[in-house]
Amino acid sequence: MGFSGYLAAPGKRLVLLGLKLLFLVPAGVPARSGDSVLKDNITVRQGDSAVLKCNVDSKVSRVAWLNLTTILFAGNEKWSLDPRVVLVENTAVTEYSIKILNVDVHDEGPYVCSILTNKKPKSTKVHLIVQVPARITNISRDITVNEGSSVSLMCLAIGRPEANIMWKHHSPRGTHRFLTEGEHLEITGITKEQSGAYECIASNDISNPDIRTVTVTVNYPPYISKARGTGTAVGQKGVLQCEASAVPRADFEWYKEDRRLFNGLNGVRIENQGRQSLLVFFNVSEEDYGNYTCVATNNMGITNASIILYGPGAMHDVNGAAVIPGCSLWLVLSLPSFYLLQF
Ligand SMILES: *[C@@H]1O[C@H](CO)[C@@H](O)[C@H](O)[C@H]1NC(C)=O
Ligand SMILES: *[C@@H]1O[C@H](CO)[C@@H](O)[C@H](O)[C@H]1NC(C)=O
Ligand SMILES: *[C@@H]1O[C@H](CO)[C@@H](O)[C@H](O)[C@H]1NC(C)=O
Ligand SMILES: *[C@@H]1O[C@H](CO)[C@@H](O)[C@H](O)[C@H]1NC(C)=O
Ligand SMILES: *[C@@H]1O[C@H](CO)[C@@H](O)[C@H](O)[C@H]1NC(C)=O
Ligand SMILES: *[C@@H]1O[C@H](CO)[C@@H](O)[C@H](O)[C@H]1NC(C)=O
To answer: Known PROSITE patterns for this protein (predicted)?
Structure first.
């Protein structure tokens, strides 16, 4: 008598009946009464194939593979409707194994190989564990905020075992450090030093970590980091240098006293190169000496610094002091004793 005759329409209600038929030929013996061997767990990565092995011998009269709800194979007969479940072509007479192709997470769970030998039921249990490499499924978009704002970044990841999520910050100056663990990263009162790339690292030791990056741009008003003049003799080329740090990048204007200077007029050229602006005098004359102001502006604010174009003989190391915005060296330079020191 074949099993299929009793279970022509396999369904969950029939599984118990099927189990009984497979386990019990001597009627009335409970299904779980046979020897049961728990083999090691089988760990398979999602997408790979799992081979469930069952040892048999020549005395075995009936064999079947079952999962929690269904008879998958009874002898050579396939009961599972899932095309991914196949019988392994028996390499040895002593083996009755099935293969699950393209394993997915819902395949995880216990499987039973049920054997009937000399009218004695026996079963081998295996537990299939499905691993999924950590993978980031959603992450915050790159953002631009103003200095002082609060920022919250999000990074969602899947994985089995559950992915561990870590945040790492790469500052624009090239330094980097680990910040925190977890899906969310909160930054209150962000500073310009906290701009840069935020790396989300999701890992679970199944494969290499999945890493994605959010770029946080922090807008801040300009500050003048360098304001330098040169001692230049009449008839020579003179250069005043002004450098501003700002996001977005600063626009520059140059003034002499209240008069704005324009590129190409009055014998000067204005050369803007990224963070810095140069005021170039083609041919310095006596009237050019004096107090100049470099003004740096962006949509966050405005600042300025005074820079002196002075004659030859003035000390070079006083230049640096002109960095202090709004502070002038003109008075210092005009002190006769100061000049005397130079000669
Ligand atoms: C098999 O996996 C189960 C469930 O994950 C676990 O409880 C059990 O300890 C594992 N057994 C072995 C032998 O690894
Ligand atoms: C058992 O196998 C059947 C057929 O392959 C499948 O539809 C069902 O989801 C499986 N159940 C479990 C708990 O793995
Ligand atoms: C990612 O998360 C955001 C915020 O929760 C949501 O609006 C968006 O639809 C998500 N994107 C995807 C691809 O799931
Ligand atoms: C610089 O200006 C002076 C006076 O205007 C002039 O004599 C001289 O030729 C100029 N030098 C150059 C290099 O243009
Ligand atoms: C330079 O800054 C000072 C102080 O903020 C301000 O009073 C002055 O008007 C500024 N000068 C220019 C030319 O913008
Ligand atoms: C130089 O110019 C700036 C801006 O106009 C002004 O604040 C400062 O007092 C001036 N310094 C001198 C010595 O005139």
So the answer is: IG_LIKE
Nearby residues of 60 by Cβ (< 8 Å), 6 or more positions away: 96, 115, 116, 117
| Boundary (domain end) residue, out of 131, 151, 168 | 131
CATH number of the domain encompassing residue 145? 2.60.40.10
Residues 170, 101 share a domain: no
2 part of a folded domain:
no
Quick check: CB of 178 below 6 Å from ligand 6? no
Query: Which residues lie below 8 Å from residue 121, measured CB to CB, with a gap of 6+?
Result: 22, 23, 24, 29, 31, 33, 34, 114, 115
Identify whether 330 is part of a domain: no
Nearest CA to ligand 6 atom 6: 326
> Is residue 122 one of the residues assigned to a domain?
yes
Q: Does residue 209 lie in a domain region?
A: yes
CA of 38, closest atom in ligand 1: 13
Asked if 285 and 301 count as a contact pair (C-beta separation under 8 A), the reply is no
* Per-residue pLDDT at 15 exceeds 70: no
> Do residues 101 and 160 both lie within one domain?
no
What is the rounded CA–CA span in Å between residue 156 and residue 136?
Answer: 6
Distance between CA atoms of 25 and 83, rounded to whole angstroms?
30
User: Average pLDDT for residues 39-52, to the nearest whole number?
Assistant: 92
Average pLDDT (180-208) is: 95
Ligand at minimal distance from the CA of 141 is: 3
Q: Please say which residue of 131, 154, 182 terminates a domain.
A: 131
CA nearest ligand 5 atom 5, residue: 303
Where are the alpha helices (H) located in the chain, listed in sequence order? 12-23, 330-334, 336-342
Ligand 5 geometric centre to CA of 296 (Å): 11
Counting Cα atoms < 13 Å in the Cβ hemisphere of 104 gives 4
195 Cβ closer than 6 Å to some ligand 6 atom: no
What's the 304 CA to ligand 5 centre distance in angstroms? Answer: 6
pTM of the prediction? 0.72
Let me know whether 51 and 122 are in one domain: yes
127 touches ligand 1 (CB under 6 Å): yes
State which residues form the domain around 250: 229-313
Mean pLDDT for 2-31 is 41
Q: Which residue has the tokens 């070079």?
A: 316
